[in-house]
Design a protein that fits this description.
Elements lengths: L20 E9 L5 E7 L8 E4 L7 H27 L17 H4 L2 H25 L6 E4 L12 E2 L4 E2 L25 H4 L20 E2 L24 E5 L6 E5 L8 E5 L2 E4 H13 L5 E3 L9 E4 L3 E2 L6 E2 L5 E7 L9 E6 L10 E2 L34
Parallel strand pairs: 4-8, 5-14, 6-11, 7-16, 15-18
Antiparallel strand pairs: 1-2, 2-3, 8-9, 10-17, 11-13, 12-13, 16-17
Pfam families: Chromo, Pre-SET, SET
Catalytic activity: L-lysyl(9)-[histone H3] + 3 S-adenosyl-L-methionine = N(6),N(6),N(6)-trimethyl-L-lysyl(9)-[histone H3] + 3 S-adenosyl-L-homocysteine + 3 H(+)
GO molecular function: histone H3K9 trimethyltransferase activity; zinc ion binding
Length: about 400
């Protein structure tokens, strides 16, 4: 999340397809009504077959239609066969039983195949965890856990540490001014005061200004040292976390592995910085799938020329779920990029968070920053946060 790539973004290219569907072998629905398909991957042995939700197979509509047509044809053939046997007076009780369609994942796979499938998923998640920690520049570790289902690493997601400029967007990182303080504080006339804002942190580096107030940290032009109390977000995430599979149907989530004190910095929300127009287009796609990764940078008097999209590129925050009673709160922070339209999005603890507790923030925030998808008309998304004050819908 910290910093940025600081140059003109390159036009995005489609990454090579690492996995290509050869055929669909089975179909079922889980308790939430989500469709799952048992996929044979092209070029991979059957031992590598995986159960995939429909949302992971967006580019395979023809293969899915072909599978369902074949299943429908088989069903009609069996019905015709049964009718003819009844007309001939033959017993129908000897007919082979048709394999039921509405199966659980465990019922649809033999015990041996299920064990192999879980082993393959755990191996894939282990490799993904190693890759995440290799790419992540923050010192705090990332664990990956799935004790719930057979979901492997998300496809089409790339871990980044910084804002990624979208096509035609420049993110400046060379501030014109910095402070001359030797000991930055609320009385020293530091960067915050020069920008007309209060000094944001106490001596422990915890946020002390209310949400909605801008936060200006010391930058590369400042004369203060690395231990300056006004350098917090720029040092990145300091808390170990785990990306884990939730048991309440919310997919992946993030939990802290250590206790986090109230007002401590937790992580940044990073992604691809895109234009308002591009955000409108992507927002329609996300709405159709019941998801949202768009975060409007509308701090400057409601003007929102830029949006952060963490759908394809992002960090740990990509997996943080919504809650109507969140334990994280959002602040706009400026460090080396002082453009008022390009704040960094920082998540701080709104209360003490115990080790093992899931992290969450309100997708429908009431502060200056929001995830409204650049003003696009959002489709209602059912909320599953389970909070006592749950609004039932995210939007």
């Amino acid at each position: 999340m910290a910093g940025t790539e600081r140059n003109l973004g390159t036009k995005p290219e489609n990454p090579p397809n690492e996995y290509e569907v050869e055929r669909i072998q089975e179909f079922t629905k889980d308790d939430d009504g989500v469709s799952w398909y048992f996929v044979k991957w092209l070029g991979y042995p059957s031992s590598e077959n995986t159960w995939e939700p429909l949302s992971n197979l967006g580019g395979c509509r023809k293969i899915i239609r072909k599978f369902h047509k074949s299943e429908k044809r088989e069903k009609l053939n069996r019905q015709e066969f049964k009718r003819k046997r009844e007309l001939s007076g033959e017993s129908i009780h000897s007919l082979p039983n048709k394999k039921p369609k509405q199966l659980t994942l465990e019922q649809a796979i033999s015990p041996v195949d299920l064990s192999n499938q879980r082993r393959n998923v755990h191996r894939a998640l282990k490799r993904w965890k190693a890759k995440l920690n290799e790419v992540c520049t923050e010192k705090a570790i990332i664990l990956v856990e799935n004790d719930v289902d057979l979901e492997g690493p998300p496809k089409g997601f790339t871990y980044i540490n910084d804002y990624k400029p979208g096509w035609g967007i420049v993110i400046p990182t060379d501030p014109l001014v910095g402070c001359d303080c030797e000991d930055c504080s609320s009385e020293s006339g530091c960067c915050a005061q020069k920008s007309g804002a209060p000094f944001a942190y106490n001596k422990l580096g915890r946020i002390k200004v209310p949400p909605g107030k801008p936060v200006y940290e010391c930058n590369i032009r400042c004369k203060c040292g690395p231990k300056c109390p006004n350098r917090v977000v720029q040092y990145g995430r300091q808390k170990d976390v785990a990306i884990f599979r939730t048991s309440n149907g919310c997919g992946w989530g993030v939990k802290t592995l250590t206790t986090i004190k109230k007002n401590e910095f937790v992580m940044e929300y990073v992604g691809e910085v895109i234009t308002n127009e591009e955000a409108e287009r992507r927002g329609q796609v996300y709405d159709a799938n019941g998801r949202t990764y768009l975060f409007d940078l509308d701090y400057n008097d409601g003007d929102c020329p830029f949006t952060v999209d963490a759908g394809r590129y992002g960090n740990v925050s990509h997996f943080v779920n919504h809650s109507c009673d969140p334990n994280l709160v959002v602040y706009g922070v400026w460090v080396n990029t002082l453009d008022p339209r390009l704040p960094r999005i920082a998540l701080f603890a709104s209360r003490e968070i115990k080790a093992g507790e899931e992290l969450s923030f309100d997708y429908q925030m009431t502060g200056e920053l929001n995830t409204s998808g650049s003003g696009s008309k959002l489709q209602p998304i059912r909320c599953r946060c389970g909070a006592k004050n749950c609004r039932d819908f995210l939007f």
